[in-house]
Each structure stands twice: as structure tokens, then as C-alpha cells.
Write a structure and sequence with these properties.
The complex is a heterodimer of chains A (109) and B (180). In chain A, helix 2 runs parallel beside helix 3 (53-61). Chain A has one domain: Udp-n-acetylmuramoylalanyl-d-glutamate--2,6- Diaminopimelate Ligase, Chain: A, domain 1, CATH 3.40.1390. In chain A, strand 4, helix 4 and strand 5 (89-91) form a beta-alpha-beta unit. Chain A is built from five helices and five strands; from the N terminus they run H-E-E-H-E-H-E-H-E-H. Chain A has helices at 3-10, 32-38, 53-61, 76-84, 96-105, and strands at residues 13-14, 25-28, 43-47, 65-68, 89-91. Helices cover 39% and strands 17% of the residues of chain A. Chain A has a five-stranded mixed beta sheet, covered by helices on one side. The model of chain A has no long low-confidence stretch (mean pLDDT 95). Helices cover 14% and strands 36% of the residues of chain B. In chain B, helix 2 links the parallel strand 7 and strand 8 (146-151). The mean pLDDT of chain B is 88. Classes of the chains: A alpha/beta (109), B mainly beta (180). The interface between A and B is medium-sized, with 35 and 34 residues.
Chain lengths: 109, 180
């Protein structure tokens, strides 16, 4: 399954340019150090963090897309940096719990 | 330690959560940083010899080692405090110049920082930087880009550097993201 499939299925907001990468799984965390330690390349990263440092962590691990949940607003600075570094940022008003359930229903684990 | 006979396959081991503590001595203004594995890092002033240390900042982080799955070589990264993505904040910085050498964005440059005071504490060797770079490049799936990890020593003006640090200071400072 690819990023665009997930965007369409879950009606996610697309905040950056899309690089339609293959999705290998989901990692949920609000800690960058945790993502650096445990997330895998190709994972979707679900978080409520929005500061520009999420781009640094996502790019390091080669995350397929960051999904900012719970309706948090992503600053322009973060979006601009993400576009420069080809990191995809999506958002949704869903809670992290609800989003996790919907991703699981889609067969992504 | 790092044997050339083995085609190393690095994996992260002994990952331990903790805090990067930054302290300042109000007597001499010396700044020190260290990794604390304590559940509750120190918050109050304390005296250590000539110094009176006060906590300036703390950030959640993780310490780890890398081990080769094949030859079992174990490399400690106790000297690493954080990694920072170069965002090109200063056009005359050597790190940014390195980033600009890849105009097609096929190489992203990260800077590895050690603990302060830099001149008094053991810093990451070039060999360890290469191993860390290998580890993350092996972990990445992208065939379009790779990462390069360089030492903080390439940055002339550390105080004005504003790249993207991979550490969790924002959680502790309670700067919640803005709700729409």
C-alpha cells in the first residue's frame, strides 16, 4: 500500500508535496528519540508534534509520511522544511487512537 | 573493535531512555551537558568542587550502542548527545557547503554533537561517525538519497546554529502544539 492510497482512504489533509512511497507499517510516538530508536524505514509516523525537528527525525529514518493527528496545526516553518527535505506531512482531525484503529482496519500494522 | 574483514550489519542495542541535562556554573559560567539515566534528573542547584551547578535545560533522549549482527562487534555511542539535520541556516558554514555539494538532494547532512564542554570530554571519533552513518543508511530504504554524518567541529559558530535537533526538549517545556 502506498501513501496516496492511505490519503484517499482516510481523507487525510495533504500539507506538503507527496512522494508516493510504499508504506511498511505504522509507528505512533510523540518522542523524536523514540522514533530514531524504534521506527522503521517506510513506516507512517503518527504524532501530535508539529515543530520543525520532526522533519529531521522523519528524514533520518526514511519515514514514508508523518501524520499529525488530533487537529493540531502544523507551522509554515515545518511545512517549508519538509518540502525542502521531501518529507511528506499529512494531518487529520481524528484522535491518535481513532486514526490507529482506521489504519489497522486498512490492514496496516 | 571495527574489523575490516566483516561486512558489518549494524543494529541498535542497549537503547536506554534518559535525559540530556544542560547545567551552568553560576560562578564561572561554564556549561556542561551529560546523559542521565535517572528517572528524575536533578533540578536543584548543587556544588561539585569549585562549581555551583544549576540546570538550564533538560531533554528526553536515548543512549544506545551499535552491534554487528555478524561479528558481534559492539560500538558504544556514549559520546553522542544528539544529531542535528543541517537546514542551511548560514550560507558560509562548512556543513551547509557540504550539503550544497549535492544539489539534487541525494545526500542529507546531519551533525553529531557530543557533550559539553567539548574540549574536556571525549568526542565521537571519525570511525564512530562512519559507523553511525552506515547504520542509518542501511536502515533507510530510499535508493534516491543517503545521509552523511559529520562532526560538530565543522561548525564555526555553534551558538547561532539553528538546525533540526533530534531531541525531545519540547515535551518537557510544555510547549503544546497549536490547536486549529
Amino acid at each position: 500500500m502506498k501513501v496516496k492510497d492511505i490519503v484517499e482512504n482516510l481523507s487525510l489533509n495533504v500539507l506538503t508535496d507527496i512522494d508516493d512511497k510504499e508504506v511498511t507499517g505504522v509507528y505512533i510516538s510523540d518522542m523524536l528519540s523514540d522514533v530514531m530508536n524504534k521506527a522503521q524505514a517506510g513506516n507512517l509516523w503518527v504524532t501530535i508534534q508539529t515543530h520543525k525537528n520532526i522533519v529531521a527525525a522523519a528524514n533520518l529514518i526514511d519515514i514514508s509520511a508523518v501524520i499529525v493527528s488530533q487537529g493540531y496545526e502544523v507551522p509554515d516553518e515545518t511545512i517549508e522544511l519538509a518540502n525542502r527535505y521531501k518529507v511528506v506531512i499529512l494531518s487529520t482531525d481524528d484522535s491518535t487512537f481513532t486514526l490507529g484503529g482506521r489504519l489497522h482496519q486498512m490492514g496496516i500494522k | 573493535m571495527h574489523t575490516s574483514q566483516c561486512d558489518h550489519q549494524w543494529e541498535m542495542v542497549n537503547a536506554q531512555p534518559g535525559f540530556i541535562i544542560t547545567e551552568i556554573c553560576h560562578k564561572c559560567n561554564l556549561v556542561t551537558t551529560y546523559f542521565s539515566r535517572e528517572e528524575n534528573p536533578p533540578l536543584e542547584e548543587y556544588r561539585d568542587g569549585e562549581h555551583f551547578w544549576n540546570v538550564m535545560a533538560s531533554a528526553q533522549s536515548v543512549s544506545f550502542n551499535l552491534q554487528c549482527k555478524s561479528c558481534k562487534s559492539l560500538i558504544s555511542f556514549n559520546e553522542l548527545s544528539s544529531l542535528m539535520l543541517c537546514t542551511g541556516c548560514k550560507t558560509d558554514c562548512k556543513v551547509f557547503k557540504l550539503l550544497k555539494r549535492s544539489p539534487d538532494h541525494s545526500v542529507w547532512v546531519y551533525v553529531a554533537f557530543g557533550f559539553k564542554p567539548y574540549k574536556d570530554k571525549l568526542q565521537l571519533s571519525q570511525e564512530k561517525l562512519s559507523i553511525l552513518e552506515d547504520y542509518f543508511n542501511m536502515k533507510r530504504r530510499s535508493t534516491k538519497s543517503s545521509i552523511k554524518i559529520v562532526s560538530y567541529e565543522m561548525i564555526d559558530d555553534l551558538d547561532s546554529c539553528s538546525g533540526g535537533f533530534i531531541m525531545d526538549e519540547f515535551l518537557l517545556s510544555l510547549e503544546a502544539p497549536k490547536q486549529k
